[in-house]
Amino acid sequence: MARLTMTGLTIFALAVGLSGCGTAKSDTAGTGGADSGDAVKPLRIAVIPKGTTHEFWKSVHFGAEKAAKEVGDVEIIWKGPVLENDREGQIQVVQDFIVQKVDGICLAPLDSQALVEYVSQSAEKGIPVVIFDSGLDRDESIVSYVATDNRKGGELAAHRLAEVMGKTGDAVLLRYNQGSESTFQREEGFLEVLRKEYPDINILESEEYAGTTPQESLAKAQQVLQKHRDTIDGIFAVCEPNATGVLQALTELELAGKVKFVAFDPNVPLVNGLKDHKVDGIVLQDPVQMGYESVKTMVTQIRTGLVPKRISTGEYVATPENMDETRMRELLDPPQFGE
Fold first, then answer.
1. Which of 6, 12, 53, 282 is the most exposed place for a label (fewest CB within 10 A)?
2. 163 and 98 both lie in a single domain
């Protein structure tokens, strides 16, 4: 047997090949991840963030790749707009992946309304969509929604700011960007708690939009802080780029440490600010888990069709007092793709 002639090997190979052509493929048909016979085609899953600049998305990317490696036979295609205000750019990315006929799309929609039509198009083409981070106004076309409970995150921010303000004084909310469902929920949760539970806190400003970049947020924060310099006691910024701009404005105006400040999502300047008591709290998500659960959920949907409609990835508050605890350290400095 160890000395089969070339002719014998050829005949043997042909026999195996012919028998393989007759095998049924019912075990894998319709999964989106299998080819005919025993050959398994890797799943191609597009992961589309709101943007590709901020550290949060790099950690989501890390989680997505972690899930792909764990599952095996999964290719992650990571692509999104550079900036988080490029709705048309994100729509084009979604359309491109529909044309490419990827096996699934994981999407963090920039706009809760503008992306509904394109998510529906994807579903109509047989490409399932998992939404993560930020929701849609209509979700009947999606497989599952993987995200932080953003309203609860805003509520946690309100409680923390009220605590460090002594439950009295004048506070400011800086909003993010119109159409962003995740930050809208944070904003509304924050305002609801302050109005219902802390009557001695006056809300000075709550309708100013700081924009999607640290530079835009710096300019807006400077404007608001200058306007209320003599009265403001606390401020909440609802996402990483906003909070970065606010911290810089507080520092430049020599108000850091004097005006109480709660941020949402960490980066190096904000974590250093927490150490130095220039930041009084950072509401934390778990971006690695968000990317991980999004991809795992998509794979499960393709292979079994059985996934929960909503998956929460948790929300936490880091303070100068607890920031050295193990779980807080993990969330304050989550791994990023490419590190």
1. 6
2. no
Tokens of 15: 């026999």
10 Å CB burial of residue 284 (0-12, 13-18, 19+) is: buried
Residue with tokens 């006056």: 202
Answer whether residue 26 is part of any domain. Answer: no
Q: Rounded distance, CA 247 to CA 254, Å?
A: 10
What's the pLDDT score for residue 165? 98
17: left (phi over 0), alpha (psi -120 to 50) or beta: alpha
Residues 273, 303: one domain? no
Q: What is the pLDDT of residues 234-264, one digit of tens each?
A: 999 999 999 999 999 999 999 999 999 999 9
| Residue ranges of the chain with per-residue pLDDT less than 50 | 1-38
Q: At a CB cut-off of 8 Å and minimum separation 6, what does 233 contact?
A: 165, 169, 170, 171, 259, 260
Query: Are 65 and 155 found together in one domain?
Result: no
Whole-Å CA distances, 64 to 50, 135, 144, 201, 305 = 15, 18, 16, 41, 20
- Whether residues 182 and 245 share a domain: the answer is yes
Number of domains in the chain: 2
